[in-house]
Every structure is written in structure tokens, then in C-alpha cells.
Amino acid sequence: MADQHEPRRYGRGLFLATVAGGLSSLAWGKAAWSHVTGVVSPIAGAIAPILPTQGWRIYTVSDHMPTFDPATWQLKVGGLVETPTTVTYAHLRALPRVDQISTFHCVTGWTVPNVHWGGVRLKDVFDLVRPLPEAGALQFVSAEIPYVDYLSMPEAMLHDVMLAYEMDGKPLPREHGAPLRLIIPDMYGYKNVKWLAGINLVPHPEDGYWEQLGYDRDAWVGRSNGYSS
Amino acid sequence: MIKYIARFSRTERTLHWVNALCFLFLLATGLVLYLPSLSVAVGRRPLLKDMHFWGGVSWVVLLGLVAVLGDRRGLLRDARELERFDHDRLNVGQKINAILTVAFTILFFASGMLLWFGERDTRFRFASTVVLHDGLLFAALALFVGHLYLAVLHPATRHSLRGMTLGSVREDWARVHYPQWVSDTEKVPDTRSAR
Fold first, then answer.
1. Residue B172 is assigned to a structural domain of this protein
2. Interface predicted TM-score (ipTM)
3. How far is B70 from chain A (nearest CA, A)?
4. pTM for this prediction
5. What is the DSSP string of B2-64?
């Protein structure tokens, strides 16, 4: 006698649909998320302020984040310059201030749009030290040892490259590189060195921390590190 | 006298608890990596990344070992059981939870491997991998919270936890919640081994 109760065989379908949907999201996940994040983030932010609702992830390469003391912090600017200079925090804040709103892209795939940065342009630092003609690149040294990275002189002179000491109207938080970080919006975050402790002018760019591990030296957003847009 | 009936085999229970412990370990280490406030408080990101990665590898290896060394025939029977959305030994919600848990494990592992190897080789790098891994976190957390509530807090269902710890449940409770299953086991004595 036939079974009167016809079994509903949905299990395999649900399993396969979930796995297929998840794997296919590697192709559409980021675009879909960028559409819903504007709606989800304020709600999630209201419920749980600890969530990274703006989209930031905090990446470090050493065990402890550097700490910042305004009384003792210094930015040493040297190398191929006429006048090697040590910039104190008070001195930094007295330099001509610029503000900009730009988007921050991480090479791992997350993006934070419309970040409000406050800080100084590199040309105003150059006015202090006067680079020598043979200086073709800048080495940015982080207090997070052994993190360093380089920009060529033309890259460093792009109109929206800056040294930021404020983020979204507040002093740069510790996890974002307090008190000073490099911002180059056209390149992925690993070029935006945090916890800046020194800038050395050098003849040409070399491989920085992540470049030594296989990342592209010229980290243009959308056209480097295996991405093409 | 209270009568108990066998509900989950030793293999099923071991699989459940290995999965639960590994999930909690990965949740804890993953949240430290994910939440800025915890990242700042804990630090030690390189160590946490290694713990999270090797925890994920161990998760899948341990589940595989339990499946291979345990009651394989029983697990195949479980898979067939999950295929039918009927309320027998498990209700439909429990079956959906189990199916999604297996699917999420596969997706967590796949996206985790892509994150790990993508950091080392651009061929494995996709802009949406981190979105998938993070999305799975929220989906798995929602399942986990619901599962925890029903298994530990909800008065009508929390007796089921005994089945997943000691292996058996009260027959009178099972008769109310799983009448079809009790009726089936009475017709055909349950051959589910204790393995």
C-alpha cells in the first residue's frame, strides 16, 4: 500500500540553495551590501554602538597599538632634505589646516564612504624641511614597528593626499593611528600608514610592509592587487 | 516511575558539542578581530588571527573525525531524516536549523580560507569575501540565539537539552512534542545504536 503521507523533500534543496547563494555572493555580495548598508547601519548602530557600523575594521601587525602622549610625541622628518626637522604635536597643529571628505578602501574588500579628515598637506611639511632635488620618494615610518610604506613624489603630491590628525570632527582615535596617519584615498588602506612617527625622503620607492608580503607597491583602488574595475 | 527513551546517539551528541565548542571559540576570537572596541581592548591581532584560522581548520577536521570514527550509518540516516520536512524525531524548525548549520559551516570555512589565502595570493582575493564571512556571522548568531533560547530557557522545550547531553528524554514529554516519533519507535524499536 502506498504511503498516504507524501514526504515533503525540501532538505537537500534548502542546503544546496544556501551554499550556492553564499558562494555566488562572492560575485555580488559587496554591491548588494553597499545598497542595504545605508538602511541597516543606523538601526544596528542604535541597537549596538559597539558594532563596526560605519564599516571600519581595525587591522594591526603587532601585538600592541602604539600609545600617544601629546607632550612627548614627535614626527621626525629627514633623509634627503636641507633641514631635518622634528615636528611636535603643537607644531603640527599650528601648520595650515586642510579638511577633506574622501572614501577609504581596504584591499580586503570593505569600504568606508565620506570620511571627514582634518590635517595638513605634505607640501606644508616640505616647506619646513626643503627636499633636495634627488628626493624621489617618501618613506613613512609607523610607530607600529616594523610597519613602513613608501610613496613616490608624484603620488605624494596628489591633490588629496594628506597627513590627518582628525577624523569625523574628533582627534584621530588610537585605533585609526593617533595622532597622525597618512591619507591617500586613491590607494588601498595599507598605504595609508597609521601612527606616523617619521617621514624620510629617499631617492626612490621601495617595498613597504605588505609589499614585502606580495601586495602591489602602487595600490590603486580597483586596479591593483588582483582587482580590475 | 519516569520512563526515558533514547533520543540522540553518542556520535550525534559528540558532533553537536564539538561543533558548539568550536563555534564558540571561533565566535570569541572572531569578535575580537571584528569589533573595533574589542580589537583595541585585547590587541594581539597576529596571535588572534592565528588562533581564529587554526580554530577554523580544527573545527572542520574534528567534525570530520567524529563523522568518520563514529556511527557513519546513523549519520547517513540523520541526513535522510533532514531531507523530509515532516515533524517526526525532529520538528521542521530543528531540521532547518541543522541544515543551515551545516551549510553555514561550509560557507564559513570556504570564506575563511579565501580570506587567509587571499592575504597571500591575489588569485584568492575577492572584494566580497569579507561581506560573506561577516554576513554569515550575523546569520549564524541569529540561529544560535534562537537555538539557545529554545534549548535552555523556553520551559516547554528546554527538556530537549537532556537528549543532547545524556542522550535520552522523558517519554511523556516526547509523546507531547514528538508524537509521531514516539509512535514510530513503539512500532519499530529504535535501532539507533549508542555509538
1. no
2. 0.91
3. 23
4. 0.87
5. --EEE-S-HHHHHHHHHHHHHHHHHHHHHHHHH-HHHHHHH--HHHHHHHHHHHHHHHHHHHH
